[in-house]
Specification:
By secondary structure, this protein is mainly α. The protein contains 14 helices and no strands. The longest helix is centred in the first third of the chain and has 69 residues. The protein is elongated, with a radius of gyration of 34 Å. The two termini are 63 Å apart. About 5% of the residues have low confidence.
């Protein structure tokens, strides 16, 4: 009996110990699993750091290339060549890391993204050849670098998506937000470098600039929401600089002047042409009766306004002088034919005037067509007065500041 009681007491004492051992084993298993998972992610974290360093250089190469092509090879040839050397170095460093990187552990999705990124990186020299030969447009070159960077940055997104650790996932998302904000800043640098070099926006350029600025603001906002207080403080310090202020100033110049100067002048030309027709039509209808005989004088005022505005447009866009001269020739013919038509009405009323109007309508259609073409080609002609080198330098200094925050964030991942 006593043995039975002693056995039961021992059994009662053993049960908690048994469950404690089980819990310990489970905890050790979970800890080992988490450690193994974290260790498997470490190569990805290091890959992200190398990728971000390489993208930082291709972002600058994209900007320098935009200025070079935008100026028909007249500007930034030395800067582009020096930047290519820096890109080559970052590409070589990334390549050395990849020699010992085993991507077989990360699934089909990652491997597809990896293959795409490497394929685009291997196309850099091919596109450089096209750039050197001037056989590619600035837009197409910018698009290549942007696609390359997007493919590279896709790899960094794997950190947050593959991690089962909440803190690591959050940190990864923080890193990706900053990288995407910085990439949009790099695209903006390339777009405005080309724009200021051309002294005009390409079609849709102003809207694209607005989208890039909005995207930067959103990604930086996400970064602020996710980052540690220390990283947010570093970001605020970085964004409190002369370069950042200069970027904001020149960006505002692009927004405010972007489509205003030339667009306003093209509108003024169209209004002047319409007013010429209106006053000549009025004097045709009144047949220059006393008190209603100022049509020719008023038409001449608007004709002078048209000619003056065309001269101003030639100053803003000297490369479009041939087209603008053709517009002026068309207008002069239209104006002379309009005076002839009005005199026919004055001399013989509708009997002489109506046939003359039929002839005049052909001249009116011609000037309307030419004004439409002029508007399409010149509405984005700006006259910014911004040196593209100064813009590139300020934008680069701002992006280099963001790179400092990027490096601090990456160090927190490792």
């Amino acid at each position: 009996m006593f043995k039975s009681i002693r056995f039961r007491l021992r059994l009662i004492a053993f049960v908690p110990l048994f469950f404690a051992l089980i819990l310990t084993a489970v905890s050790l298993r979970d800890a080992y699993t988490e450690l193994s998972h974290t260790e498997s992610l470490e190569p990805l974290l290091r890959l992200s750091k190398h990728v971000s360093a390489h993208v930082h250089e291709t972002q600058k190469e994209r900007g320098a290339t935009g200025v070079y092509l935008g100026s028909d090879g007249q500007r930034f040839s030395n800067e582009m060549a020096k930047q290519r050397q820096k890109t080559n170095l970052s590409r070589s460093t990334l390549g050395e890391f990849l020699e010992n990187f085993d991507r077989s552990n990360y699934g089909d999705w990652f491997n597809l993204a990896f293959s795409d990124a490497i394929a685009k990186m291997n196309q850099i020299d091919e596109y450089r050849g096209k750039i050197d030969e001037m056989s590619i447009s600035s837009d197409d070159a910018t698009r290549f670098y942007t696609d390359h960077n997007a493919a590279m940055l896709e790899l960094t997104a794997t950190v947050s998506s593959m991690s089962g650790d909440a803190d690591l996932s959050k940190f990864g998302a923080t890193f990706v937000s900053l990288l995407q904000g910085k990439e949009n800043a790099g695209i903006e640098r390339a777009v405005l470098a080309s724009t200021f070099s051309d002294d005009c926006f390409k079609a849709g350029g102003l809207g694209k600039l607005g989208s890039l600025v909005s995207a930067q603001d959103n990604y930086i906002k996400n970064f602020r929401n996710l980052a540690t207080p220390e990283l947010v403080e570093l970001l605020d310090t970085t964004l409190s600089s002369r370069a950042v202020d200069e970027v904001a100033r020149m960006r505002q110049v692009a927004f405010t002047i972007g489509e205003s100067k030339s667009k306003q002048r093209t509108i003024e030309c169209r209004i002047a042409a319409i007013q010429v027709q209106q006053w000549l039509s009025d004097i045709s209808a009144t047949r220059a009766y006393e008190g209603f005989d100022d049509g020719f004088d008023e038409a001449e005022k608007h004709a002078d306004k048209f000619r003056t505005t065309i001269a101003e447009l030639i100053e803003v866009a000297p490369d479009k002088e041939k087209m603008l001269t053709e517009v002026l020739t068309s207008f002069d013919a239209y104006y002379e034919k309009g005076i002839w038509m009005a005199n026919k009405y004055i001399e013989g009323g509708p009997e002489l005037g109506n046939p003359a109007m039929t002839e005049f309508d052909a001249f009116a259609a011609d000037i309307d067509e030419k004004l439409t073409t002029m508007s399409e080609e010149l509405d984005s002609r700006a006259g910014f007065g911004v040196n593209p080198r100064e813009w590139f330098a300020a934008a680069t200094e701002r992006i280099d500041g963001l790179k400092t925050v990027e490096d601090a964030t990456a160090n927190g991942l490792l």
